[in-house]
Amino acid sequence: MLDLNPGLMLFVLVVFFSLLFLLNTMLFQPLLKFMDDRDERIANDLKNAEEMVANNSGLNAKADEVLAKAKAEANAIREKAVNEAKALADSKIESKVKELDASNAVFMAELETEQESLKNELSAQLPVFKETLQSKLSSL
Fold first, then answer.
1. Is 26 helix (H, G, I), strand (E, B) or coil?
2. Cα separation values, 109 from 48, 98, 114, Å
3. How many distinct helices (H) and strands (E) make up the chain?
């Protein structure tokens, strides 16, 4: 029936162990090394990502600080420009007020001289008005 051949069994056992040895050296050990290297790379990448997050927080803080300084400088420049514009406008208004005051003084002086000349003219013509008025009253 079934014959057991010890030579064949020994040969199969040698082939099995040699195949096991070859698979271990050529497949399993490189595969395990690759998996260990991959785990190590993943751990390093996670560590680097955490460092970058911490570094990113520091850079964000610096960027916020720079932005705050820039906003403060912009506000100072804008306020300075507004103050200069107000000062320029105030000086223009002041000069225009002085010019209008001088013009008003000249106008008032002319008005007074005109008023005096009109009074003198009316005083000179007062006797003529009296005569005309008396002649009209007498004709009534």
1. helix
2. 89, 16, 9
3. 3, 0
The tokens for 128 are 């003529």
User: Model confidence over 120-134: pLDDT tens digits?
Assistant: 988 888 888 888 888
DSSP-derived secondary structure for the chain: -PPP-HHHHHHHHHHHHHHHHHHIIIIIHHHHHHHHHHHHHHHHHHHHHHHHHHHHHHHHHHHHHHHHHHHHHHHHHHHHHHHHHHHHHHHHHHHHHHHHHHHHHHHHHHHHHHHHHHHHHHHHTHHHHHHHHHHHHHH-
Residue 11 is classified by DSSP as: H
Q: How far is CA 137 from CA 91, 128, 131, 134, 140, in A?
A: 64, 14, 10, 5, 5
pTM: 0.45
Tokens representing residue 119 in the block: 């009074």
Report pLDDT digits (tens) over 6-60.
Answer: 999 999 999 999 999 999 999 999 999 999 999 999 999 999 998 888 888 888 8
